[in-house]
Amino acid sequence: MDPSDNRDRRLIRRTVQLFAGLVLYGASMALTIESALGLNPWDVFHQGLSKVTGISFGWVVILLGIPILLLWIPLRQRPGFGTVANLVVVGFAVDGALHVLPAVASLPARIGFLVAGILLNGLATGLYIGSRFGPGPRDGLMTGIVGRFPRLSVRLVRTSIEVLVLGVGFLLGGTVGIGTIAYALAIGPLVQLFLPLCTVPGGEPRPEVRKGLSGLRH
After folding, report:
1. What is the model's pTM?
2. pLDDT at position 165, please?
3. Who contacts 191 (Cβ-Cβ below 8 Å, separation ≥6)?
């Protein structure tokens, strides 16, 4: 078979997988929001900003991504195609999913939404990172700091950023609860499970992406 055919097929798979992962990521965010049982740290921040500004959750995700991306410049990070796609697609996907998801009031239904959201988030993360098009703005911020200051561990940088956004988001009115803890405990093992299954073969990720994957797995 012509090697160029294999490259074309890999590119098609990577592109489809990237956008599928980003859309599913937005849907997973909407499920956890509707559960009202607690969000992951960044989404606590997004929700808090949404409540304070009156801007939709999805638009907060998009607009906040812009200054975060600007922080990449002094960190000497280079955005990839996946970075730009992440900036836009996730925000529209979460707003769309929030529009169509039914409101749930019973605790079993809310728990079901939470569990489905966390599981879907793990799969979506594996899909979009496994497409090898580059990290999203928030993950890139973490990997950029680690790359610029190699004495800092991924775990320390990731934890510091997430504690900061969690605290500010909580003060702004974002939802913190059992779902926040469940996400923190489950997302690493889920990404570790899904990522090998979703990674498109054909080359190693860039060094900063590998650092980001390490941060997600541990």
Report:
1. 0.88
2. 96
3. 122, 125, 126, 129, 213, 216, 217
DSSP SS3 for 91 = helix
Alpha carbon distance 92, 207 (integer Å): 29
CA distance 174 to 168: 9
Count of CA atoms in the C-beta half-sphere (13 A) of 107: 1
pLDDT digits (tens, 9 = 90+) for 179-194: 999 999 999 899 989 9
What distances in angstroms separate CA 54 from CA 32, 43, 45, 49, one per listed residue?
Answer: 20, 15, 14, 8
> Taking the CB of residue 202, how many other CB atoms lie within 10 A of it?
13
CA distance 95 to 101: 10
Cα separation, 162 vs 54, whole angstroms: 23
Condensed to tens digits (0 to 9), the pLDDT of residues 87-128 reads 999 999 999 999 999 999 999 999 999 999 999 999 999 999
Q: How far is Cα 142 from Cα 139, in angstroms, rounded to an integer?
A: 5
Indicate left, alpha or beta for 135 from its phi (over 0: left) and psi (-120 to 50: alpha).
beta
Structure tokens at 87: 């900036």
